[in-house]
Amino acid sequence: MLCYRTVGEEFMKRFAERGRTPNYPHMFFGVFTASFLLYVYFTSFRFVELSVLAQMVVFNFIFVFTLFPIQGRLTRKLCLLLLGNFVGFGWNFVFSVFCQNFALCSDMWFKAFYVIAYPLLNSLWIVSVWCVSLSALAGWRKA
Question: pLDDT at residue 97 above 90?
Answer without folding.
Answer: no
